[in-house]
Amino acid sequence: MIIAIDGPAASGKGTLGKRLAHHYGYRHLDTGVIYRAVAKALLDEGFDLTDEARAVAVAMELDPEKFGHPELKTQRIGDAASVVSAIPSVREALVNFQRQFAADPPGAVLDGRDIGTVICPDADVKIFVVADPQVRARRRTLEARARGEEADEAAVLADILKRDERDRNRAAAPLKAADDAHVLDNSNLDIEAGVRAAIAIVEAIRAQRK
Ligand code: DC
C-alpha cells in the first residue's frame, strides 16, 4: 500500500507521515528533505539557487545518508528549498528516486507537495493536510526554539505565507490537493488526534476495498 500525504509547510504532514508509517510497519519518506538537501548542497558550494545545471547535477548525486543532517530543518534551508523546487528539471531528476521508494515492499508513506498528484497518482490513500497559517507559524516557532534557534512568530508566519504562495503558484507540480484526496484539517488537533484522524481515513478506504 502507498499512502500519499501532501500539504503546505508546517501543516503537520511530516509527523503524521512518520506516525502512520510506524502504525502500519511501512517505510517513510519526507520528500521535503530531498529538496532541502539540494538547496543546502548548492548554498554550501556557493552556487546560486537558480543555477539550474548545478542544481540538477546536485539532485542526481544526492546521498540519502545525509538526509538526517540537522541543518536541513532550519527555516533558511526550507526557504531555499522552496526556490530550488520550482525548477522543473530539478523535480524531474528526483522523480525516480521517490517512485522507487514508494514501490519497494512492504508499503510506504511519502509526504510532500505533489505526491498524490505527480509522484504517486495511483496511491491507495491520499491525504491532504491543511491547518490555519497562524497555527502552523506557532508550531514552527516552538519547534525552532526547541532546537535552540531564535524564532520570531510574526516572521515565521510571513515566511510560511510567502512559501505557500510560491509552492501553490509555481508552474511545475504546484501544491494542490488531488481530486481524490481526503482533506484533513489539522488546525485544532493535537498530534494524537491527528494520527487517529489519519488512521480513520486509511481504515475507511481499506474497508471499502474488502
Ligand atoms: O515540507 P518542507 O517544508 O520540508 O519542504 C521544503 C520545500 O520543498 C517546500 O517549500 C517546497 C518543496 N517541496 C516540493 O516542492 N515538493 C515536495 N514533494 C516536497 C517539498
From TrEMBL:
Coiled coil: none annotated. InterPro entries: Cytidylate_kin, Cytidylate_kinase_dom, P-loop_NTPase. Belongs to the cytidylate kinase family. Type 1 subfamily. The keyword DNA-binding does not apply. Keywords: ATP-binding, Cytoplasm, Kinase, Nucleotide-binding, Transferase. It comes from Bradyrhizobium icense. The keyword Zinc-finger does not apply. This is Cytidylate kinase. GO terms for cellular component: cytoplasm. CDD domains: CMPK. One of its GO terms (biological process) is pyrimidine nucleotide metabolic process. It is an enzyme of class 2 (transferase). The gene is cmk.
